[in-house]
Amino acid sequence: MANVSYVSPIALPTPRRNNAMTAQMLRIDELPRKPSTKVKNGWGELTREVRESGTIAVTSYDKIEFVVMGADQYRRIAQIVESVESNRKAALADLTAEFDRRLAQMQDPSTRARIDAMMACDGRTPTRPKAGPSY
């Protein structure tokens, strides 16, 4: 029989354990394991273990092939992924808007004249700088 222990999902309520929140998802090699033959022959037992522990890794020849989780947990993870993707798209839209603003500013007809005037001064200013009384 595979050693089944509790696995907590990323920042989600832990099933049947004081409803505590956790900040980290376990790595796949840290998940409780169950050989595929035991899954095939004992689906009811697997579903009970998933309800108790949250996630089970199904192995074949000691290699993890699948991860089984409850539908509610899958929905929460999918919602997190959707939120991250939405945030990524919003950030990309902000960067695109900033790029477009800067590009339009560079393409303004007066920009060339200002750059030419700046380059022509060779680091000199048209008026002598004034130092304050404490200088």
Mean pLDDT reading = 76
Radius of gyration: 30 Å
Q: Tell me the total number of β-strands.
A: 3
**Outline type:** rod-shaped
Tell me the domain tally. Answer: 2
Instruction: State the end-to-end distance.
Output: 83 Å
Spans of 5+ residues with little confidence (pLDDT < 50)?
Answer: 1-24
Order of adjacent strands in the largest pleated sheet = 1-2-3
Beta-strand proportion = 5-15%
What is the oligomeric state here?
single chain
Number of helices: 4
Query: Which range best describes the helical content: under 10%, 10-25%, 25-40%, 40-55%, 55-70% or over 70%?
Result: 40-55%
**H and E order:** EHHEEHH
Q: Please describe the biggest sheet, giving its number of strands, its sense, and whether it closes into a barrel.
A: 3 strands, mixed
- Structural class of the helix and strand makeup? mainly alpha
